[in-house]
Specification:
single chain; alpha/beta; Rossmann fold; 54% helix; globular
Amino acid sequence: MSDRTLLICPGATKAGTSWLYRWLHDHSACHLRAVKELHYFSSFDSAELAKKTAVFESQVARYQAERDAAVASNTDWKIRNMTRRIGDTGDLIAALNGDRTGDAGYARYLTQSAPDGAIVGDISPAYAILDDATLARMASLPFRVKVLYLVRDPLERLWSHVRMHAKRFLRDGQEVVSKSGFVLGRILNKGHESHITERGDYAGTIERYARVFGDDLKVAFAENLSTDAGQKDICAFLGIHHEAPEQRDRSHVGLSIPFPEQRRRATVKMLADQYDYIAERFGPLPANWVANRAVLA
């Protein structure tokens, strides 16, 4: 096993992974490339690989246009930023589409230009639903692999994911408030949009990762990320010193749409197993978890 540590963060979706990426990206003890979600372990399927490659190629084109604009305006910092994004994303496309035997290309991508001893990372919420065989492959990488899984109040995470999904798939003539309510209704009444609930299956994800990684798995509350205590706890897990983030606020905050109160009890009831699992394994719960869980009392 290598002396270098690889941090894998498999989500949960809408539980603070973007904030975590920005904090660790700027941390002097870490080396994270300019792409947050690498999707290496979620793109072995040829169709999924083609889909992710197209997304990354589109991003490169956008970065190139932004760099051209920065050159025209003589904005040096943006020229440097876009040049790095273009290079890192291009390298990732090559790693994803190259020879994956032994995952050597992935390891090279992670460590390229990394200072000695720096922690490298892959923060991809899509990894939350990986199967045991893929996790075993991840564990066999030539790194000390540590897994950090973020959990957020189940109802708040679900509603944030619903709003994101509604906005992303909004059609002409629709508005996001009613579309969000429609999507939530499909989940509660018909079990549809299963990818949203799967990404919030804390018990399933944690049990799979625990079987493979044991003590190298840490579960942390998203609600504690902005606190010194929460950050120091993560730093201790990674074996690095604490550096306060420049940004305290959450990243990618969704549209501010109030949760439909008439559906709160039914939603918490659907998510009761997730509340119970986290309470029993990782309690005490943050205040917002307690308040939402109390709806069933």
